[in-house]
Automatic annotation (TrEMBL):
InterPro entries for this protein: Cyt_P450 (IPR001128), Cyt_P450_sf (IPR036396), Cytochrome_P450_Monoox (IPR050196)
Gene3D superfamilies documented for this protein: Cytochrome P450 (1.10.630.10)
Keyword Metal-binding applies: yes
The entry's keywords: Heme, Iron, Metal-binding, Monooxygenase, Oxidoreductase
GO MF annotations, alphabetized: heme binding; iron ion binding; monooxygenase activity; oxidoreductase activity, acting on paired donors, with incorporation or reduction of molecular oxygen
Gene: 6042282
Annotated source species: Culex quinquefasciatus
Record protein name field: Cytochrome P450
Iron as UniProt keyword: yes
Length: 211
């Protein structure tokens, strides 16, 4: 059944109004952030999208170089505009210390909410009084006296790691898979008492865990 011209016209008008309203709300939402953060320097962006396009053009290496360039241009604290999100990036050790030692800032970013169903609400994802309760329960396990017992393991696995890197003969190497194997060796031996030798020997388990 073909809709009447008047009904079709009203439908189009409603869709246009809804689209305009959504865009206006998004623009007002962005404007609040822009005003609140205008005192923090950062690279200029395009309307609505901010720095998104510039960042999407970068691969992993280029992204790092881009962030280093921005901090050299705008200082140790910069803002990065990504659509409806503004990231505040700190590169100063003094600023970082103020953040990590202040209980006010121990709430995780909204990105972590995607892991709630997987990991539950524990020391990694919690905040506030519950986080302090879990952290206090684990404090003794991470005391310096306990960690000192693991120094021979750290040293042994680090020496294997260094030998693997030196064997590259100065060539460029992707360190990510190398460090994954090193981390797997250290975690398994310190936390579970199991020598995996992931850095030295290949196995189905190593491939499954390290990807």
């Amino acid at each position: 059944m073909t809709p009447q011209p008047e009904v079709a016209s009203r439908t189009i008008a409603f869709k246009e109004y809804t689209s305009y309203t959504a865009q206006a709300k998004f623009a007002r939402f962005r404007q609040r952030f822009v005003r609140a953060l205008k005192s923090i320097p950062g690279p200029p962006g395009v309307p609505l999208l901010g720095n998104s396009i510039e960042l999407l053009r970068c691969d992993t290496t280029e992204l790092h170089d881009k962030l280093v360039l921005w901090t050299s241009q705008y200082g140790p604290r910069i803002k990065i505009d990504v659509c409806n999100t503004h990231w505040i990036m700190h590169t100063s050790p003094e600023l970082a210390e103020q953040i990590v030692t202040n209980a006010t800032f121990n709430r995780k970013a909204k990105d972590y909410e995607y892991m709630h169903e997987w990991l539950g609400i524990g020391i990694l994802l919690d905040h506030g009084p519950n986080w302090f309760k879990h952290r206090k329960a684990l404090t003794e396990a991470f005391h310096f006296r306990v960690l000192e017992n693991f120094m021979p393991i750290y040293q042994e696995q680090s020496e294997i790691l260094v030998e693997k890197l030196l064997s590259c003969g100065g060539r460029a190497v992707d360190v990510f898979p190398v460090f994954k194997l090193y981390t797997l060796d250290v975690i398994l031996e310190t936390a579970m008492g199991v020598r995996c030798r992931a850095q030295e020997n290949d196995s189905d388990y190593v491939r499954a865990v390290a990807g």
